[in-house]
Amino acid sequence: MSQTGFISAETHNLHSGQVEATLAGEVGLLARNIVIEGNKYPGFENKLRGRVIVSCLTQDGLDYEGSAKLDAVEFRNMGQLGFDDTDDPRFSLAFHSLGETTTNYVKRCSFNVNFSPALGFFSTNSVPVEANIFYHSVGSGVIDEGSDNVYKDNLLVSILFPGTYNGAQETQNMDWYGAFNLNKATNPVLENNVVAGSEQAGIRTYGENCQDASLWINNEIHSAIFGVLLWKKSGDADSPCKRVSNMYAWRIKDTAFFMMYPASLLLSNVLSVDNKLGTNQLVCRPAAVSHEFEDKTATVRDSVFVGATPSHTCSFHQSSSSSILFFSKSKFWEGGKEDGNTGILFASFMSSVNMAPKHKFNELSSYPALHGSSYIEDVTFTNFESRDNCGIDVALMTNQGSDDAIHPIFTSGLTFVDTPEDNYVFIHYTNLVRVNPSDCVDMDCDGHKKVVVTDNDGTLLGSEQATLTSEAEKEWDGDRSHGVGNYRIPIPLRQNSDGSAIPEADKFPNKGM
């Protein structure tokens, strides 16, 4: 066994025992009898300690192809900081340009202190990577730019951000890495892997295609800023729908499942526990100004969200790593009710990607898309309560960064356990800061005034087809800084033909949507 998972374990039985959440540290054995070790010399942190590269070459008219069958080998103090380009990956171990292969594998190995990503695949396919331990890698633990590589039973621990590593302050470094960096990988298999500690994301990916059978089974991420980061900053979609599934994320500092992509999004069969935000789905394109639309959707299905377990304290989310301070805490999720935890943020549909990481990850920086709808189906919420000095945990919430529009939301099959009704849904009021000439001019933006949640089966609101709407009339004839009131009604609409005034209560008795 290369890893176990029972240190300081705490197990919670949820939803009548149908779901079990275990919060535990991992133990991994790093020592191996066969050791490949980098040299030590002064200033070694930024120098090449050593690397193993498996590749091919042509010399004197002959083709040579490397092969490596690695089992129970320790790579110790390897790699070089800053060299992770495709053409010169100075990793502890890299496979390059081997194409489809059946003669390579990495099993039961340990990567013990890496000054770079530990393992990389470039134009190399179908390599089994099983039961390995990756400890102390800079950037990512694994970078995959191949296809059909298989990751099973691996443990990745302490994955560090290069921009702040060893006291650095690379102020222009806006890169975001995953312990598993898979956004250039095709059809990777992920089964029974654990990421335990990452200064950025647990998994960076473009997700799976919804129409394909899932190759991801029973993976776990904890103690990271983001759990799964499905984030495409440019380019077109290669599928009409992208999926993240079969994941367990707990004690995530920002968002357990962040998804931003120019296609429909599906989050299914996930367990989210003790996370600041369970999921945020942002669907991009087509641009509203193009007068084009697509009926894209964002769906959360067959999943469980736990607000806070009994052992969860405020101190975890209040602590800050060097990478959080580097990017500024203001770039991350701060929208919880009184700083509490949130299960699902209602999805946003927008004309283009937002400006993260230079700006907040949850904010929109383009016009809303013309079409879009969200579906929350067969989801259980448990332990979303008010906690002393820790804020109010809420199951469902609007995205406070979506000022111009929040598209329709439809719910069904919801279950609430140990969650008061007041903690089911929270709808933000408008952002007063947006009342300015550059945004919504002299009155509130419309987004948070036009929220409509439809309960298809009564499991949210108590009756079928009931609707929950925002309080659009709030501050009508109240605080003038919001710019709404009877005084905004054009004078001709408030007068009879003879010029006499029509009482607003007679002609406009109802306010709101």
Automatic annotation (TrEMBL):
InterPro entries cross-referenced by the UniProt entry: CEMIP_beta-hel_dom (IPR055401), Fibrocystin (IPR052387), Pectin_lyas_fold (IPR012334)
Keywords recorded for this protein, A-Z: Signal
Superkingdom per UniProt: Eukaryota
CEMIP beta-helix domain: residues covered: 67-204
Coiled coil feature spans: none
A Pfam family the protein falls into: CEMIP_beta-hel
Disordered: annotated span: 490-513
Bias kind Basic and acidic residues: ranges: 504-513
Name listed for the protein in its UniProt record: CEMIP beta-helix domain-containing protein
Organism of this sequence: Petrolisthes manimaculis
Organism placement in taxonomy: Eukaryota, Metazoa, Ecdysozoa, Arthropoda, Crustacea
